[in-house]
From TrEMBL:
Keywords: Amino-acid biosynthesis, Arginine biosynthesis, Cytoplasm, DNA-binding, Repressor, Transcription, Transcription regulation. It is found in: Cytoplasm. It comes from Alloscardovia macacae. Residues 8-73 form the Arginine repressor DNA-binding domain. This is Arginine repressor. Transmembrane segments: none annotated. One of its GO terms (molecular function) is DNA-binding transcription factor activity. SUPFAM superfamilies: C-terminal domain of arginine repressor, Winged helix' DNA-binding domain. Signal peptide: none annotated.
């Protein structure tokens, strides 16, 4: 089994939330070390902002010490909804501008435009803009690619993937925070995992 964690804010927040649930984290320095073990390098200033975004606070443990904890209702749901809302706003704005441009150009000769991107490249870019910031982890197991997302985002990600024809992908199954991409064979699964990671990299 192979796995990858994107270098995105959403992925980092997801890992921080998991670490706070798995360990008794008493200091930010301890959390920095735990993140480093996961392959995530972060500055103290960035970590402080991340903890604020997660609404993490120090609570008293049974031993009488104080450790970081996050609310039961995951703040990542708000992060995910914000990302989806921003993407929908961008798409609506682009559609509006295109409509205005078409109306203004009626009866006049449109300026020539050469599209330097292939249909495949355009599809990759569009899909990256839609879901790139919502993928927190990708795991490859035989002919399956398991995509982890913030809570509530899996069906949105699966729907976005299903709208684009992708070679060697039979389909997707989505839960609440996990998408299973079914490919035709093991080699295709590894290829799609690398493809997804490159897509997330484009949205860093």
């Amino acid at each position: 089994m192979n796995a990858g964690i994107p270098s995105t804010r959403t992925a980092r927040l997801s890992v921080i939330e998991q670490l706070l649930g798995q360990y008794v984290v008493k200091s930010q320095q301890q959390l920095v070390s735990l993140l480093a073990e996961e392959g995530i390098q972060v500055t103290q200033a960035t970590l402080s902002r991340d903890l604020d975004d997660l609404r993490a606070s120090k609570v008293r443990t049974q031993e009488g010490d104080f450790a970081y904890a996050v609310p039961t209702q995951s703040p990542l749901e708000k992060v995910m909804l914000d990302e989806i809302t921003r993407e929908q706003d961008r798409r609506n704005s682009a559609a509006h501008v295109a409509g205005v441009g078409a109306g203004a150009g009626a009866g006049t000769r449109a300026s020539q435009h050469v599209d330097i991107f292939t249909p495949v490249a355009r599809r990759h870019t569009q899909l990256a803009k839609v879901i790139g910031s919502l993928i927190t982890k990708v795991v490859c197991a035989q002919n399956l690619v398991v995509i982890h997302t913030p809570p509530g985002a899996a069906q949105y990600v699966a729907s976005a993937i299903d709208k684009y024809p992708i070679d060697h992908v039979a389909g997707t199954i989505a839960g609440d925070d996990t998408v299973m991409m079914i490919t035709t064979d093991n080699a295709a699964a590894q290829e799609k995992m690398d493809w997804l990671m490159s897509m997330v990299g484009a949205e860093r």
